[in-house]
Amino acid sequence: MSFLEYAPAPESQAILNLRSEYGLFIDGEFREGHGTPFASISPATEKHVATIAHADASDVDAAVAAARRAYDRTWSRMSGANRGKYLFRIARLVQERSRELAVAESLDNGKPIKESRDVDVPLVAAWFFYYAGWADKLDHVGLGAAPAPLGVAAQVIPWNFPLLMLAWKIAPALAAGNTVVLKPAETTSLTALLFAEIVQQADLPPGVVNIITGAGETGAALVGHGDVDKVAFTGSTSVGRAIAKQVAGTSKKLTLELGGKAANIVFDDAPIDQAIEGIVNGIFFNQGHVCCAGSRLLVQESIHDEVIDRLKTRLSTLRLGDPLDKNTDIGAINSAEQLERIRELSDVGEAEGAERWTAACTIPENGFWYAPTIFTNVSTSHRIAREEIFGPVLSVLTFRTPAEAIAKANNTPYGLSAGIWTDKGSRILAVADKLRAGVVWANTFNRFDPSSPFGGYKESGYGREGGRHGIAAYLKTAAPAAAVAPAPARKTVSKGATK
Amino acid sequence: MTRLAVPKTYKLYIGGAFPRSESGRTYEIVSAKGAFLANAAKASRKDARDAVVAARAAVGGWSGATAYNRGQVLYRIAELLEGRRAQFVAEIVDAEGVSAAAANAQVDTAIDRWVWYAGWTDKYAQVAGNANPVSGPYFNISVPEPTGVVAIIAPQDSSLLGLVSAVAPALVAGNTVVVVASETLPLSAISLAEVLATSDVPKGVVNVLTGSPAEIAPWLASHQDVNALDLVGAGALDWIDLQIAAADTLKRVLPPENGPDAAAPSLDRITAFVETKTVWHTKGLI
Amino acid sequence: MTSTQIVPGERAVALLGGEANDANLRRYLHGIPGVDAVGLEQRAAGLGTRSIKTTSKAWALDRIIGLVDLTTLEGADTPGKVRSLVAKAVTPDPADPSCPRVAAVCVYGDMVPHAVQALGSAHGDPDQGKIAVAAVATAFPSGRSSRSIKLEDTADAVAAGADEIDMVIDRGAFLAGRFGQVYDEIVAVKEACRRPDGTYAHLKVILETGELNTYDNVRRASWLGILAGGDFIKTSTGKVAPAATLPVTLLMLEVVRDWHRLSGEKVGVKPAGGIRASKDAIKYLVTVAETVGEEWLTPHLFRFGASSLLNDVLLQRQKMTTGHYSGPDYVTID
């Protein structure tokens, strides 16, 4: 037998106790939506997972109204210490139900269980734990004493890290004293609804967290709602642009975490084996459905062939298949639509003259799959070097000097993340200085932490999530512009004109 | 016989030079009492384009200068303003029709505000940045950096103070600026440009356009190589349209402000036009 | 048993572009890309999350047994102790004749005759289902004696019937940058492994990674050991903590992989010391398979230096066979 064909090691689904239908979570309870319910399927099998309610405009109204009531009557009046204790409760409940959440996430999203189990869900708990502690320390956020919450936050999140993006949104909003209406992505509502159960278990006051499900128009109705004070969106740059236009002229505060086309720069003195791992982790983590994915590999020309050779060898050990198998490295593409986009852009890459290499993988019969793919001979003008593919597809470009690497890395309207691989500390710092990206990973990639601000430059959006910056995005100063103004009194020290 | 005065030709300030508008247009600037003061250049969209090109070219040098150096350069402006205060006072008295005392007060405040901001260059990063205690063997630090080219519609009801209040904070972090001056009170802006031109501020760091904000602002709002838009003085324009135009490239936008406190000095005006960059590095002993 | 017939001096000269002296070795070893400790440890931890179940686990447990160098290296060792060890090596699980034998027994040099005698007809090439005798040599574990003593130590063990010599490198010389001295000593020990018939005892080069301390040093020492003609590179003596770790073993496997890419030659790896649980040993198998390939999981290319590991594997094996959890009274002590 071949040892490397590890026997199946599926994570048990017995831990899941899913309902066949899920309603909207408004004002502390599940209720039916007024839109037509839709099916959520598992992208690995195309099998039905649950029927999800569809919120229409009246449901959005109800959810925003519930959030407003909860804000006015309860949450904004509660002590920070008590808000914090609720968030600590949520953090603990997430930990307690972590395996269940991980299984649900992999089932619904298609990501490998090892990622949902070891990355997504632990970070969700960490995010709530981190922001719980901020709730009674808002004076130290950096906005002066007693900063005020904004009110009702409308939050729209993507399908690539469903529960983690929920945590990124909800934890700081609640810690700051806002109430929220959150809309998960249409294809990945499940864990948000399990989270609603956690909210119930935590006995959070009704209306503080509302989860409404639906597609794009539900999100647009939420973002455009007149009684919303804050809009936070993570997703594509095109939708982010539309939201920025939608809220133009309003007093809604806006944070956007959008697309990316990150350069992962490998210098010839890089710790090579770790760099290979970093390249793999950078683009094949979560099937490349990562806004900060290292989708453009910039490798120094002198080591190009060696890096590609090693990379191909390494990719041949990646295991594609059942997301619930504990040995799966590459899970399913989240939807047929996304798969189509990946295929289309890859075909364009080939047509443009880039050289395509795909790891030998057995593709399962059902479900949506895309084998890890590398394009070499890519130039900066190719579409696969410019457009976000959001899939397991790596475009490889070369450079000769650090200056060229920086220029190529920055040659994009995006600016979310970047990677640097070199053994030379001074070069890391200098290159990091010059990269126009909100997160720079040096000799590592795709690391996330609740204390670490995350967000983009340029068309990758604005605002930061994580850390002190992340909670500041949900607060305003108590007395705008008063505290920092210099004393107006002046003693004349002029040497010139007198008057 | 009294000496005949030599009046000044007020031109644009782009890339360290004082060109006329490429369109050849000027418009008449009159005093508060309606007397002719000057023919100011009426900038066109192409002048705005040139200004953005100049501002972009200056980003590397200005943002790459040390914070200490930027502080000194900005402080130097305050010194020069102090030396030419009589000129500014006279311009303000003429243009705004205020008393000499009021004009003096405006100049004083403008100079002091410039000094206040100059002192921030090497401090704001310490206040707005962070060392982050991430859970793992990493060095992790968040530092603010300039966003790039900032287009500013200056407050329209102030000759000098509004302009300074909007321009100085944008410069602190290392951004470069294209500012559209007050349409009716533009002369102090050009006089400020003359101060900048004779100071140590590199060419292109500040570019001053005079003319019609309504005409120029849309070109700046939609310009793809502009990173941020300060609409502080755009209250009378179709500023929602400007925001919508700015959204196409997801510019960072500050809304219009009205009243005498418009663009009041604050750290927020500095951090509005910075990007927080977080750098991770592994920490390994062995 | 057979051994690679490489002339280490020639390949070193070819690679270094000159004699294997301090300067050339330093230039070469310091030209190898560095190791990022965090990334290496993360990769190892990632490999450690592989879930090996059912048929794969059954295969893995048997394979682990077949890769064990069952070891006793105590000052209190006696012929009786060695006989007992050999009996365990030959019949790890008396209740289950299908249980494979270990690869080798590993003893001090003076115990080699007793091991050879006790093995009798079972003595031989582990690739042929027999059990080899490995002897530690060269003033194991510290290596602090004169060159001549080390060589004599080696020659004695080979003459007494040792099939494999586990030598220690001079860590002091390595850390002081005297790479040439380390290299020369390995070459000399290799020569002392030569039998009268011209064949060589297999040479395992113990780096004592716990004393080399840094991953960069481990990587350089691995290259040095291979350049000088080692058939195996081995992590540790078991007398210094930390002994074998998964990241260190991964790193050594990466060197072996790179050497194979460069030369086409296959060098073995032996993590030793500290591997006590089957679960951990399976992580090593995964690491080998996914780093250098599954073909390395044979006795002439991979070994575990262990003693208590064997019984834990047997307990797991019994669980898989019977479906019940076993206990320490159902496996033998040696």
Describe the structure using short key phrases.
heterotrimer, B: 286 residues, alpha/beta, Aldehyde Dehydrogenase, Chain A, domain 1, five-stranded parallel β-sheet, three-stranded antiparallel β-sheet, 10 helices, 10 strands, globular, C: 334 residues, eight-stranded parallel β-sheet, 14 helices, 8 strands, Aldehyde dehydrogenase (chain B), oxidoreductase activity (chain B), oxidoreductase (chain B), Ald_DH/histidinol_DH (chain B)
How far apart lie the N and C ends of chain C? 27 Å
| Largest interface chains and counts | A-B, 55 and 52 residues
Report low-confidence residues of chain C grouped into runs of 5 or more.
Answer: none
Mean pLDDT of chain B: 97
What is the residue-averaged pLDDT of chain C?
A: 95
Helix content of chain B: 40-55%
Q: Compute the gyration radius of chain B: what is it?
A: 20 Å
Secondary-structure-based class of chain B equals alpha/beta
CATH superfamily of chain C: Aldolase class I
- Number of contiguous helices of chain C: 14
CATH architecture level-2 label of chain B:
3-Layer(aba) Sandwich
CATH class of chain C: Alpha Beta
SS strand fraction of chain C: 5-15%
What is the CA-based Rg of chain C, rounded? 19 Å
Report the CATH superfamily of chain B: Aldehyde Dehydrogenase, Chain A, domain 1
**How many domain units of chain C?**
1
Report the biggest beta sheet of chain C as strand number plus sense, adding barrel if it closes. Answer: 8 strands, parallel
Which consecutive residue ranges of chain B, at least 5 long each, have pLDDT under 50? none
Task: Tell me the number of strands of chain B.
Answer: 10
Label the overall shape of chain B. Answer: globular
Q: Helical segment tally of chain B? A: 10
Family (chain A): Belongs to the aldehyde dehydrogenase family.
Keywords (chain A): Oxidoreductase
Organism (chain A): Cellulomonas terrae
Pfam families (chain A): Aldedh
